[in-house]
Write a sequence for this structure.
């Protein structure tokens, strides 16, 4: 089974993040949707086109989740990125690369310097996973930055399998220090 994995990190705030919040009930149910409001009496969740109110006495917890998806993309047919569209149109077959687990279509890094001397850098990766053994490397991208000097942000990240798109959400992101123990250098941080 072929999978195309795409991860992009842009050093700018992501416009229009999609939400996929979860309401955990005392009865053990986990209901996904968009939290419309939380007040002193209830949590109101929009799921499957309808709004449902859950009394706070029945709610164990609420998890507000950000999904880093491209606005307007519901299926692979909606993708506008020309490089990704070309890769999806005629992907390489595993038999074309018998010794490889994946194929990198694009690994692009760029930086623009603003008039005030600040750099805004972006990374755009497209990787075709040919075999199971390379799924982990495609799914676990790491970006290093210097704390206090750089500020990383994810605009979007997705995996495509056939027509289905799976977007990264903030529950899968780990941010931390690579050298956190004294007297190691603690300014280098990572976003995984």
């Amino acid at each position: 089974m072929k999978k195309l994995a795409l991860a992009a990190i842009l050093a700018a705030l992501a416009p229009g993040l999609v939400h996929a919040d979860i309401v955990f009930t005392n009865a053990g149910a986990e209901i996904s949707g968009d939290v419309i409001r939380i007040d002193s009496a209830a949590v109101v969740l929009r799921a499957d086109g309808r709004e449902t109110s859950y009394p706070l006495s029945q709610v164990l917890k609420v998890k507000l989740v950000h999904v880093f998806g491209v606005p307007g993309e519901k299926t692979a047919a909606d993708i506008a990125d020309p490089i990704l569209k070309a890769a999806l149109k005629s992907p390489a077959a595993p038999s074309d690369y018998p010794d490889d687990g994946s194929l990198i279509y694009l690994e692009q890094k760029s930086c623009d310097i603003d008039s005030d001397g600040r750099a805004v850098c972006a990374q755009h990766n497209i990787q075709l996973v040919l075999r199971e053994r390379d799924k982990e490397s495609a799914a676990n991208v790491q970006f290093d930055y210097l704390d206090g000097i750089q500020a990383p942000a994810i605009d979007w990240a997705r995996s495509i399998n056939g027509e289905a798109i799976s977007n990264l959400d903030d529950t899968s992101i780990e941010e931390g220090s690579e050298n956190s123990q004294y007297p190691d250098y603690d300014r280098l941080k990572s976003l995984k």
Q: What stands out?
A: The first helix runs from residue 82 to 89. The two ends are 25 Å apart (CA to CA). Residues 1-18 have pLDDT under 50 and may be disordered. The longest strand covers residues 102-113.
